[in-house]
Description:
Number of strands: 0
Distance between the termini: 96 Å
Radius of gyration: 36 Å
Helix content: over 70%
Oligomer: single chain
Strand content: under 5%
Amino acid sequence: MGDCQIPLALRCFIEEKGLELVRRNLYRNFVLHCCNLFEFGVVGPALVFAAVARMQQFMDAEQQQQQQQQQQKGQSRKSEIQDGRGDKQPHHWQAQRARWIERMGRKEGAAVAMATATRKDFSGIFPKDDKRAAGGEASSSQR
């Protein structure tokens, strides 16, 4: 492809892939590419301006479409709540949270039971005097 065919290729690319670039959030990369083409003298400033303006049209159309979808979702959610269908089933995270709290309650209950149980044998909790004496410390019997 020669330099004289780049403007036509750029226009075709924008028409075919412009919406996809906007959806994938690649608008800034596209503008950078157009600026590089201009810096190397492959395209003129008018074509860069036209290309960026066309991409902005795609961005505006995509933004309007997303706003319409959000409004439709909001209206359907309001109608579900008004009909009494919206709050009957909890979200999946609410069910998971309830199961987690239940499990933690069981674990905490077991820990409290262990902590409150009376311990009768304290062997093995404290180090023996022989070990401290070997480390250079005086044992309680030597003092």
